[in-house]
Structure formats: C-alpha cells, structure tokens
Model the fold of this input.
Amino acid sequence: MKKQIKKSQQVSFEQDRRSFIRNLALTGGALATTPVLLGEEIKNTVTKKDSVVFSYKRKLGSLEVSPIGLGCMSMTSGHYNPPRSFEEMEPVIRGAVDRGVNFFDTAEIYGPFTNEELVGKALKPVRDQVFIGSKFGFTYKDGRPAGRDSSPEHIRKAVEGMLKRLQTDRIDLLYLHRMDPKVPIEDIAGTVKDLIKEGKALEFGLSETSPETTRRAHKVQPVAAVQSQYSLVERVHENQTLDVCEELGIGFVTWGSVCRGFLTGKFNEYSRFSEDSRYASVDYFTAEAIANNMKLLNVVNKWALKKNATPAQISLAWLLAEKPFIVPIPGTTKLHNLEEDLGALQISFSQEELKEFRDEFTGIELIGVRKPESVLKDA
Done:
C-alpha cells in the first residue's frame, strides 16, 4: 500500500522545509557549499545508464548556461508582490552569480522597462560572466502596454532601448515575447538574424509559440530556446512542443517552474485571494482548483520526504531530469529561496523512480490547466 500524506504532515511541512535548509547549511551541505553545487564535481560526473546525473551547464544555442537560471520578473513587476528596490534586489542577483548562476531572464514589458534597468545595473560589474535573456514584442503608450508589435522597424527600436537599459552592447538571448499575428514569423526571425549579424544579439528565442511557428522561425534563423510555462502542474507542452525542441536541438526554458508558488507548499485548500490579486485571475488558483490539485502536491510532498528535500526542489529536480535541454528559471526576491532552488541540483532520480513518480501524478485530473490542443496555436 502506498503511503499517504496526512493533513498533519501538510501542516508541519513548512517547518520541515525550514529545518531542512537550516540543517543543510549548518552541516556544510549542498546549499552552503557553492563549489559543489555548480563546480567541478558536478561538471565532471558521468551519466549512468540507470539514473539521471546533472551536468554543470546546459546549452541554449551557443550559450552554456547554468542548469537553473534566475527569473527576475517578480523583482519589479508588482504582479505577485510589491516592486522591490535596487538596493534590495542587487544582493539577490549578485548572490546568484556568486552561487554559480550565469543565466538571467528579464523583458521590456516587466515594469515596463524597470526590470531591465535593475538587471542591467546589477550585472554590469560582472557582465562578461553572465548571459542575459530579454524579450520584445509589445508597444507602449504612456508607460503601459498597448498591444503587440513585432514589425522589423519596431523590433530594432525595441532592441536599442533594451541595450540602453541593460547597459550592454549585446543581448545574449533575444526572445520574441508573444507572437504578433500581423507579422509573419519569417520577417521576425529575419530581423533578429540581421541583429545577430550586427552583434546586437547572440541567439534567438521564442516564447509560447506553437510547434509550427517554431519550425518556421527555425528555418530562417536557428532558434536557441523556447520559453514557456511548464511544471508538474502545467504539462501542456508535452503535446508536441518538447518533441519539436528535441528534434531541432532547441533548449526549453521553463517559467512557472514551481507553479507560481503552489509547488512550494505555500498555499493550501484554505487559500483565498482578493479580487485585485494576480492570483485571482489564474485558473488553477480558484478555490475549487486548489482544493482538487492538492492531491498532486501531496504526491510531491511524499517524494520530498523520501528524498530529504523540499517540494520546490523535487519540482525543479523533476524538470531537470525530464530532458537534458530543459533550463528552469524560477523567480524570487529572496536569496534563501534561490539557495533552496539550487539544492535541486543535488537530487537525482533513477529512470525507475521517474516512471514511478509520473505514474502517480498522471492519474490525477487537474483543474485549471490548459487543454493539450491549446499549444497548437500561438499564445
């Protein structure tokens, strides 16, 4: 009989999580020993036939990035928490660099503009040690988004602004944030191709595009990465998207890796949100969805206890174990959360465990997630 997670275990899990992190630090464990996390020991390990062993870096085109990056949106966007100051966020960003993270994600629409300014300023002293991904695709009026625009002339104008805000001479990974239905993807990819030739970008990325759009773009300019939401909760991109990335040698950068905090154990069936909260607009954060989807979190909690890890670490470790070209970019405004996330690199799954884990959660019918066919259209 499979062991069930009791309600008392759910209530106490946050305490266990804090104790786990504290004890690991006190005993010189993974979260406290940065060189072991992302250093030579992991870099030089050999993949065993019956288990997944994490390599030090993952490739997005020509970019060799840390297996876990840092999503910076929440630092200034105000969507899930109040915007933070540069003085508060610089130690988090630079702390990430100190811990081996070399991949940072931002976009012009975050703020808008203020996120790129923060990231650019924080990373300027270490610019040549890191890779920055940013995104274009929107037009603005009075400092607010006013629709999509990926015309060649607008892309060029947007990139000039991005370079200035990021205080850099190139954008390492230049993404199309959302597809503009008025502009053929071939024209967008062709414009980025020219920008790469000019040295203003190094690699081309897409976000939430359909498999067909990805294929068409890749024919014009090789796509280094597709960024989309993917987690144990939102698995819709298992319908063709991951297969196309694997076939074409494209990296898959996952946002929402811990499902906006749900997979950390932050919420439970009693969680409720005010009407003006961003959470209130997310389908899997309705009262009905949370109550139902706790069944999945219980499975994650069971594996966390089994692996002496936290739910967030299990969720990230699963992503890393699924495909060698997946790069999660969990976001945070707290350094200790980042340290916890990086602890996922110390967790391995055998192929048998991956199958057992998937067998357990795929039988759970989730509420509030996308339909598989939705990925066949650009978001």
In short: The chain has one domain: 7-368.
